[in-house]
Amino acid sequence: MKKTLSLTLNRIIQEAKADLLLGDIYLLLEHAIGRGKEFIYTYPMYSPTENELDRWEECRTRRLKGEPVSYITGWREFYSLDFKVDRFTLIPRQETELLVDQVLLRRPDSLLDIGTGCGNIAVSVRYHLNRCLVTAVDLSVKAVQMARYNANRLLGQHDIRFIKSNYFNELDKVEFDVIVSNPPYIKSSDIDRLPIEISSYEPRIALDGGSDGLMTYSKIIGDSQPYLSQAGKLILELDPELLGGVMTIAEEKNYTVENVVKDLGLNDRVIVLSP
Ligand SMILES: C[S@@+](CC[C@H](N)C(=O)[O-])C[C@H]1O[C@@H](n2cnc3c(N)ncnc32)[C@H](O)[C@@H]1O
Description:
This protein is of the alpha/beta class.
C-alpha cells in the first residue's frame, strides 16, 4: 500500500491517541524519526519520510501487542541518565531511584550492587560519587554485559567491577560500606497475573522471588554479614506487602531495622538494615 507522505507529526499523534498513551506516542515517534521531543514540538507539520513512517508503524504495532516502550526503543531514563536496555534486563522503575537516594545519602566509600540488571543503580551511584569503589554482580551474563556497556557509555573510564555471580559466590572476602539490591521479589504464582508488559516481556530471572517472594531476601540478608563493614548498611527494595516477612528475616539474622522509606505513593518501598 502506498504511504501517505503528507501525514504530519501532528496528525500521527492525534490518530495514535485513540489507542496509545501520549507519553508512549512521543517516545516511539522520537525513536521512529530519530529526533528528540523538541523537534516534534517545534515542527508539528513535518511529514516523515517513507522509512520513518515504516518505523513508526512497526513501533506502534509492537506497542499495541503489549511490548514495553523501553524494549522497542532500547532505552530507559533512570536518575536522569539514559540506560540501554533489552529483553535480558529489567526495565528500571522510578521507585528504584529511592535506593540510589539512600545510598548517596550515606556517601559510602565502597558499594556492592546485587542483581545489577542494566547497571542502573551501580552506574548512577558511581556517577555521583566518583570515589566510591563499586562492585556489581548479576547471575545473568547478558545483564552483566549490558551493565558494563552502560557504565562505559555513561562514565567513560571507570573502575566498576562487573561480575557474573550467583549472589556473593564469586566475590573475594571484601567488606563493603553499603550492599544494595533490588532483588527479584514477585511470588512465582503471581507472575502470570501481572500485566502482559511484564509477564510476557521482562526476564523471569529478574522477577521471580520464589513461592513467597522472600527467597532472595533470605539469601541476601542471610549471607551478607561477612561482606559488610562494621558500620555497613544493607539497603533493599521491597514490595510493601513483603515488609513484615523481610523484617522477620532481618531479626532472625540479627539485623536491626534502621529505616523504612516510603515511595511517592506512600508505600513502604525500601528497608535499611544494620548488622
Ligand atoms: C528486579 S531485577 C533488578 C535490576 C536492576 N538492579 C534494577 O533495579 O532495575 C533483579 C536482578 O537480579 C538478578 N538476579 C536474579 N537472581 C540472581 C542471583 N541468584 N544472583 C545474582 N543476581 C541475580 C536478575 O538477573 C536481575 O537482573
